[in-house]
């Protein structure tokens, strides 16, 4: 039996999987995100440990015999977080999360330094780990002086599980300290950002062993025999393992808290100026590129919080099919934006409302704004030479038939919807553990889900959506000029 942990922004999901891939149990535990100041986003790593304990105890209660036979653990986690620990392994301050943008000045300075884009293959975004730690050096020097290790969120959870400091290539690629082409820490990038190699964990590939489960935890959970904890990876790379996306031409669109269009790559071919992320995959000798928007379903959550009905109720107001674009434009920059703008200061806007605008009209505008932003991401990916013919839709937003049909039309490609079931990052993490323990070929383990339905573009609305998209594109520079 194998465990897959998916350490998300708002909660931890744990699944129990047999060697043949059958999911025997699944549990979730949730925790809070703190926003003490504008642009700040923090979390207490102790909440991750409590969530891990809670989900394991629940799985053990429901599946005692299966839990006894666990032999491997894989971990997926939200990327870019700065979890700082001292020489005793104690956490020095709350973890600064992926959507924390306080380090914009530090990021801009690093991004303008020779070597950073060339070696890391990416713009240094404010959400990345290196500028966050530089912010700590400037504003919390007493904390910075005590740093023994900088760990990404899932790697802190691994440290608690094993007592050892390890990381993996896919997650480390989002720090701005990794030579992404060589899949190794860059001594040059570390030195230029005031860090040392000994402050970094050792790196392994996603399916390689990265410690053994501590005997005390194995005893507490009733596990018999040794348990290997593998490297795991960043959430999107591991989600790609869960849906079988690791060959050139494979891709998916994710409508989660953030929005992603991801394409697997067989070689390292970055184009940093596009604001496309080029990262190591969790599979050896493989990379991926993705465009990222910082708020996708988060925009619907925001709308729901202000209007009252749930996101599902708001979505239901629109019905299952599209009938053309709205006259209202929504720029979904609630927390700034990454691809293609790399702008941490820009904020969201609603433009074109009138006295008759109601819940349905606002919902349509918000969904379209997210769709237009993902179209921006696709155009950025195309500029790097990436060519996607179709994608799989994952994430909570994919439950909206209206949203998926609108995206298919905006992106001008078929979108496949998987059959209902467990897949994605938690399953991908368990699959990495299976490969690591058994030595199986990833292609035999990381198969794609069965497709329940393919949503095709609505060609009769293509021109109208293209015109609306051009209107949307023209709004960013106008809003940016006002925002100065």
UniProtKB/TrEMBL annotation:
Annotated catalysed reactions: D-xylulose + ATP = D-xylulose 5-phosphate + ADP + H(+)
| Domain of life, source organism | Bacteria
Identify which residues the record assigns to the active site.
235
For this UniProt entry, the molecular function terms from Gene Ontology, in alphabetical order, are: ATP binding; D-xylulokinase activity
The UniProt record gives the binding positions of substrate as 79-80
Q: Boundaries of each Carbohydrate kinase FGGY N-terminal domain copy?
A: 1-242
Residue ranges the record marks as coiled coil: none
CDD domains recorded for this chain? ASKHA_NBD_FGGY_EcXK-like
In the Enzyme Commission scheme, what number(s) does this protein have?
A: 2.7.1.17
Secretion signal, residue range per the UniProt entry: none
Per the UniProt record, the site (Important for activity) maps to 6
Could you list this entry's UniProt keywords, alphabetically sorted. ATP-binding, Carbohydrate metabolism, Kinase, Nucleotide-binding, Transferase, Xylose metabolism
Q: What enzyme class is recorded for this protein?
A: transferase
Q: Which Pfam families match?
A: FGGY_C (PF02782), FGGY_N (PF00370)
This chain's function reads: Catalyzes the phosphorylation of D-xylulose to D-xylulose 5-phosphate.
Concerning its family, UniProt says: Belongs to the FGGY kinase family.
HAMAP family referenced in this protein's UniProt entry, alphabetically: XylB
Put simply, this protein is called: Xylulose kinase
Gene name as annotated? xylB
């Amino acid at each position: 039996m194998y465990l897959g942990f998916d350490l998300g922004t708002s909660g931890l999901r744990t699944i129990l999987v047999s060697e043949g891939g059958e999911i025997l149990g699944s549990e979730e535990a949730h925790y809070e995100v703190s926003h003490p100041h504008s642009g700040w986003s923090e979390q207490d790593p102790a909440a991750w440990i409590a969530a891990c304990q809670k989900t394991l105890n629940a799985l053990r209660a429901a599946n005692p015999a299966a839990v006894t036979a666990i032999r491997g653990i894989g971990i997926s986690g939200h990327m870019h977080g700065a979890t700082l620990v001292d020489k005793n392994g104690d956490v020095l301050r709350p973890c600064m999360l992926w959507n924390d943008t306080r380090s914009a000045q530090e990021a801009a300075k690093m991004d303008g330094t020779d070597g950073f884009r060339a070696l890391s293959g990416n713009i240094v975004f404010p959400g990345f780990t290196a500028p966050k730690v530089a912010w700590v050096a400037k504003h919390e020097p007493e904390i910075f002086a005590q740093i023994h290790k900088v760990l990404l969120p899932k790697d802190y959870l691994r440290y608690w599980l094993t007592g050892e400091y390890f990381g993996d290539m896919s997650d480390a690629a989002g720090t701005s300290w990794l030579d992404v082409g060589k899949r190794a820490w860059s001594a040059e990038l570390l030195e230029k950002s005031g860090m040392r190699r000994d402050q970094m964990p050792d790196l392994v590939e996603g399916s390689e062993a990265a410690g053994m489960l501590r005997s005390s935890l194995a005893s507490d959970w009733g596990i018999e025999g040794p348990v290997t904890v593998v490297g795991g990876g960043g959430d999107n790379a591991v989600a790609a393992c869960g849906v079988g996306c690791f060959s050139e031409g494979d891709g998916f669109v994710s409508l989660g808290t953030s929005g992603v269009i991801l394409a697997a790559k067989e070689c390292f071919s970055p184009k940093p100026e596009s604001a496309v992320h080029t990262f190591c995959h969790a599979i050896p000798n493989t990379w991926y590129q993705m465009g990222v928007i910082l708020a996708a379903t988060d925009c619907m959550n925001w709308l729901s919080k202000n209007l009252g009905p749930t996101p599902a109720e708001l979505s239901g107001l629109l019905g299952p099919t599209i009938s053309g674009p709205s006259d209202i434009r929504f720029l979904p920059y609630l927390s700034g934006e990454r691809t293609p703008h790399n702008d941490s200061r820009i904020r969201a806007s609603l433009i074109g409302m009138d006295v008759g605008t109601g819940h349905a009209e606002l919902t349509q505008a918000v969904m379209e704004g997210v769709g237009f932003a993902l179209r921006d991401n696709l155009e950025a990916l195309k500029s790097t030479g990436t060519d996607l013919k179709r994608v799989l839709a994952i994430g909570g937003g994919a439950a909206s038939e209206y949203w998926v049909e609108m995206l298919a039309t905006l992106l001008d490609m078929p979108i496949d919807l998987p059959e209902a079931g467990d897949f994605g990052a938690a399953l991908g993490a368990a699959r990495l553990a299976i490969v690591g323990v058994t030595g199986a070929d990833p292609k035999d383990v990381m198969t794609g889900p069965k497709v329940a339905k393919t949503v095709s573009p609505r060609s009769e609305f293509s021109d109208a959506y293209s015109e609306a998209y051009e209107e949307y594109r023209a709004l960013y520079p106008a809003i940016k000029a006002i925002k100065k």
